[in-house]
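Folded chain entry
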Amino acid sequence: MVALLNHPRAALVFDFDGVILDSASLKREAFAALYDDYPDVQREAIRAYLGRRGGQPREVKFRHIESHILGRDVRAADIDALCARFKAVVAERIRVAPAIPGAIEFLSRWHGRLPLYLLSATPGHELREIVEQRDLARYFEAVIGAPPDKVTGMRNLLERYRHPAAHTVMIGDSYNDYRTARGNGTRFVGVCADPSASPFPDDVATIRNLRRLEAALARLSP
């Protein structure tokens, strides 16, 4: 492993939902539930869109659903109201969602040995509140939510903490996480519980959960 992880300026950057907490599907269901009263065709289109667009801010998802799927004029106040409804639905569920297998163990082993960061599309203040409540903040050098978008967030992280992109690894469960890594020149490991439904290109190192993360990192060339 360990050439990469032993580099003096190496760093790992984790997504949150679906990587640290088993909460990605929970959030997709909460999104979809807000449109349960709509006709089947629209509900199916919404679910299909949500299945493709993990790792994006909720405002972006609501704006797309309202404008492109439901054909509505989108006002900022409407998006804010939908975001508030969504937060109310998921807040308590997220606080009790189980950790992804191997996540806490990995964080415990590597905390203090190299810098670990959290980078999520969840609003920053909400993300930090959840991380504190779940007693996870102690593992991370920084907890970074939206805004900005993930690509910009990663760029800012690399610049602020002076980590070389070639020795930084993003661990994520969505194509947007992969795009974030590619857009910044960092390495990437994908997390996907069902490899047959992987959103990543075939050449991406992919694991079902974080129990095999060290092995996946060991396979990345230094």
Notes: Strands lie at 11-14, 116-123, 142-146, 168-172, 187-191, 206-207. The mean pLDDT is 91. The chain has two domains: 2-22+99-218, 25-96. DSSP finds ten helices and six strands in the chain.
